[in-house]
Design goal:
The chain contains five helices and three strands. The protein has a three-stranded parallel β-sheet with strand order 2-1-3, covered by helices on one side. The chain is of the alpha/beta class. The protein has helices at about 15-30, 50, 75-80, 90-95, 100; strands spanning about 5-10, 35-45, 60. It is globular and about 40 Å long. Strand 1, helix 1 and strand 2 form a beta-alpha-beta unit. The protein has a single domain (about 5-85), classed as Rossmann fold (3-Layer(aba) Sandwich).
């Protein structure tokens, strides 16, 4: 059986970049090399590496934090470039980044 090709995207351009790099490293360490062909991508704001993932991976794991990662922007781009590769839907990710939308009504 072929290994599932996984890209772990980490880093980013927000103030939480270092946290994202640590999160991504933990995800990489946790993935079983016997089952997954894993590659890491340190996202620095250049979308060319994201475009290059098309056809090269089966699954994308976003370990991005803060602006661009938690607000659904990169998720939306990945949905356009690689439909079905990223697990979450943008509609589900974006409200969690908005403090007013994510708090229950009083």
């Amino acid at each position: 059986m072929d290994k599932v090709r996984v890209a772990v995207i980490m880093g980013g351009i927000s103030s939480e970049r270092e946290i994202s790099l640590r999160s991504g490293a933990q995800v990489l360490a946790a993935l079983d090399a016997a089952k997954y062909d894993v590659r890491s991508l340190d996202f620095t704001g250049d979308i060319a590496p994201l475009i290059a993932l098309k056809g090269a991976v089966d699954v994308v794991f976003l370990a991005l934090h803060g602006f661009g990662g938690e607000d659904g922007r990169i998720q939306g781009l990945l949905d356009l470039l690689h439909p079905g590769a990223a697990a979450q839907q943008v509609e589900l990710v974006q409200p969690g980044h908005d403090a007013l939308l994510s708090q229950p009504s009083l």
